[in-house]
Design a protein that fits this description.
Length: 120
């Protein structure tokens, strides 16, 4: 079965950096787009960044180019490098496998999430 396990969350001061990663299993990782989403307290889940099977990327415009998504197909892994973090980046970050290879597909499977807390 599809499994997505996030790691790397934690507490960081504003202006700092953090990298979260997701290790996948149970499917042909290289054939699917992957995404990072987040849910802040009291808010809905929102898209952060996605990466296609071929490495094309898409980012939420609100990120101001502070985040970078990448994938290593040989390791079945997708990561999100976050820089210049702000308190409003505080959220649970979720890894998702999309329904197909392209950026235009929707998320289908979710990890359990990892907490990122940015202190001011």
């Amino acid at each position: 079965q599809v499994q997505l396990v996030e790691s790397g969350g934690g507490l960081v001061q504003a202006g700092g950096s953090l990298r979260v990663s997701c290790t996948a299993s149970g499917f042909a990782f290289g054939m699917y787009a992957m995404g990072w989403y987040r849910q802040a307290p009291g808010k809905g889940r929102e898209l952060v960044a996605t990466i296609s099977s071929g490495g094309l990327t898409y980012y939420s415009e609100s990120l101001e180019n502070r985040f970078t998504i990448s994938r290593e197909n040989v390791k079945n892994s997708v990561s999100l490098q976050m820089r210049n973090l702000k308190p409003e980046d505080t959220a649970v970050y979720y890894c998702a496998r999309h329904r197909g290879p392209s950026l235009q597909t929707n998320p289908e499977y979710w990890g359990q999430g990892t907490q990122v807390t940015v202190s001011s």
